[in-house]
Design brief:
By secondary structure, the chain is α+β, with helices and mostly antiparallel strands. The protein has 4 helices and 8 strands.
């Protein structure tokens, strides 16, 4: 019996040491990147937020515009993807042919790069159920993102050769 206990101890000791060792995973919020991030063995990823759920009853156009402004502030001004993606529906449709549909797929694309992209906001506009963000980046040049909102959440996104709506003035809708 004693021999069996010694053998079991010898086999389990390395396993116990591995399980008791500190993990390489840490969750942080830093000054450089306001998003919550996970660092695991040198890899950095944004913590997946709780994606937007439809608001019932649906918000008014004014309430949706206020949500758009909060999204725009988090996405462009503070570059906080964790907060910004709380406004995106989990099944949102991405009309960019290089990207898959879904909020998680978009977060997987932007998460590893967004904190190092330099962004210069140009203008933002909200009208009806559509919101537009126009900004310049050091990685992608000038961008116009268009978002369709449904029940208080971003349901669709376009960014391929999107025109900015006429009448949208520089600084319009900035918060």
């Amino acid at each position: 019996m004693r021999g069996l206990l010694l053998a079991a101890s010898a086999l389990l000791a390395p396993l116990a040491a591995v399980l008791a060792a500190p993990t390489a995973i840490s969750i942080t919020t830093s000054i450089e990147s306001p998003s919550k991030t996970v660092q695991n063995r040198g890899e950095v990823a944004v913590v997946t937020p709780v994606f937007c759920q439809p608001i019932v009853p649906a918000p008014t156009e004014e309430e949706t515009e206020a949500r758009f402004q909060k999204f725009a502030h988090a996405f462009i001004d503070t570059k906080n993807l964790t907060e910004a993606f709380e406004y995106i529906s989990p099944g949102y449709i991405n009309h960019n042919p290089s990207a898959q549909n879904g909020a998680a797929a978009a977060l997987d694309i932007l998460g590893p790069i967004w904190d190092r992209v330099t962004i210069t906001p140009i203008r933002r506009t909200f009208e009806g159920e559509m919101g537009w963000l126009n900004y310049r980046t050091d990685e992608f040049g000038e961008v116009v993102d268009r978002y369709r909102w449904e029940d208080g959440c971003i349901a669709e996104h376009w960014d391929q050769n999107e025109p900015y709506p006429s009448g949208g003035e520089a600084g319009e809708g900035d918060s």
